[in-house]
Amino acid sequence: MQFDTSYLNKTPNKTARNTTSFKPEFVILHETAGYGSLEWNLRPEVRSSYNYLIARDGKTYHYVNEKSYIAWHAGVRSWARGYSGGEINVYAIGVEVEGPNDGTPITTAQTKALVELIRYFRDTYAIPINRDYFFAHSTVAPGYKDDPRGYSVEYTLKLLDESSLPSTGPRPNTLGAQLRNEVYKLAKGEYRPDWMFHQYAFKNKLGSPIRVGMDFSVKGVRYTGEVYGRDVIISPYNQWDIVLRANDLTDQDVYNALMQFTYGALGVDYRPDQAFYQFISRPPRKLVGVPLGNSSRLQAGDGAAYAAQLFSLDALYTPIAATGTTNWSVVKQLSAIVAAQNASAADAALRETINRAMYSRINTSFDAKLPFIKKALEANLGAPLSSQRRWSYRNNEYLYVVYAGDTLFALANKPAEVRLLSEQAD
Ligand SMILES: [Zn+2]
Predict the structure, then answer these.
(1) N or C terminus: which one in the chain shows less Cβ crowding within 10 Å?
(2) For residue 41, how far is its CA from the centre of ligand 1 (angstroms)?
């Protein structure tokens, strides 16, 4: 970790240590309650200091070297640990985070720097990251000190515990990263280029996010997961380098539990006894994506009836005989009709009906000649997840439609020049 040392040990408000092997016992976290503290605490009459200060921009100053000096940042009337007066400073490191201490949240850059600094203390001094070692000033001096008010010590420690959760790093101001953010926003998330799920999804072309931030437990293991148009990905808690894809899960119990959770999150009935579910869930699994709704009765243009279920990348169906009976052992995929060289008239009518149903979900009429729809069919992007939306970026107006398999976009004044978001780097 990099520290700015331009103020290091310049304040007179410190006491030399009489040991060369100082090991801090805990860390006290403060907020400055004002600005200009780096200069202010150089004045002898102020009679206070601290070991580190994190400025609004996240720059971290090493102010008093804790190995050589005791900084004067906290005094206590009494504390459960038995310290009194300024004695607490002998054993503690004092960290100031710059802020008004009126409840205004500290900046994202400060949160990030604070997390890094706590990690540095752990690595340098073997201070365990938990609430027995990190204290708010208000905790050790209750009743007369109320800092910090701009951040929660407990929450900050939680961020460290889950250190690979979406980071607070900047998102590049590129077309790719910004449009991806629009797509994540539709899934009620936010695009984090340094979050491993988002990197994984981009690298492996998993298509568009449908649901982000699912937490669930299976067989005593806690997971977090995200649903994409082409697959669901999960990671065991705090083992963020492991990403598992639903379609690759070898443990059928884990797969079923994940699907039960995913169906629930998508508002679809989970019916493991149903023919459609059994068709897709048995290995080798069918790459149909995730369900967009329950199965329902469809009537094709030629009058034939089907039981059908729409998935993000495909649709499953089975004919309903004129007598009203259904042979559930016969499950077919829309993609087979699409792939067929010469579809029968009945299949063509069904394909048209399913396409209409997919587009009516987003209140759009299906017209295979329109540039976006044409491109989506050519590129096998599956179902549209959004209607056509407008977006402006660097003084240009764009149109885009989120599909399960990718997002299509074009300049508003050149709507026929359709591009794939997956081909745009950050
Ligand atoms: Zn304080």
Answers:
(1) N
(2) 13
Residue 380 neighbours by CB distance under 10 Å: 15
In percent, the amount of the chain with pLDDT more than 70 equals 96
Greater confidence (60 vs 122) lies with: 60
User: What would the pLDDT profile of 320-365 be if each residue is shown by its tens digit?
Assistant: 998 989 988 999 999 999 888 889 999 999 999 999 999 999 999 9
pLDDT band at 165 (very low <50, low <70, confident <90, very high): very low
Distance in Å, CA 32 to ligand 1 centroid: 7
Contacts of 64 (CB under 8 A, 6+ apart): 8, 9, 11, 14, 49, 50, 51, 71
Place of tokens 């394909």: 351
Maximum distance among all Cα pairs of the chain, rounded to whole angstroms: 96
What contacts 191, CB < 8 A, 6 or more positions away?
171, 177, 180, 181, 183, 184, 198
What is the model's pTM? 0.64
User: Contacts for 248-255 with beta carbons within 8 Å, 24 or more apart?
Assistant: 250/283, 252/281, 252/283, 253/218, 253/219, 254/218, 254/219, 255/281
Whole-number Å distance between alpha carbons of 141 and 178 = 45
Residue 192, CB-side half-sphere exposure with 13 Å CA sphere: 15
The overall average pLDDT reported for the chain is 91
Counting the structural domains of the chain, the total is: 4
Ligand 1 center from residue 343 Cα (angstroms): 75
- Say if residue 349 is in the same domain as residue 323: yes
Dist. CA 74 → ligand 1 center (Å): 6
Confidence bin at 158 (pLDDT 50/70/90): confident
CA of 12 to the centre of ligand 1 (A): 19
**Residue of higher predicted confidence among 240 and 81:** 81
Q: Which is nearest to 99 in space by CA: 172, 28, 163, 37?
A: 37
Q: How many residues does the chain have?
A: 426
CA–CA distances in Å: residue 194 to residues 172, 201, 240, 393: 11, 12, 12, 22
- Domain carrying residue 272: 195-281
Q: How far is the CA of 391 from the centre of ligand 1 (A)?
A: 46
Note whether 75 and 68 are within 8 A (CB). no
**Domain-terminating residue out of 337, 360, 383:** 360
Same-domain pairing of 240 and 304? no
164 — pLDDT class (breaks 50, 70, 90): very low
Same domain, 24 and 124: yes
pLDDT given at position 65:
97
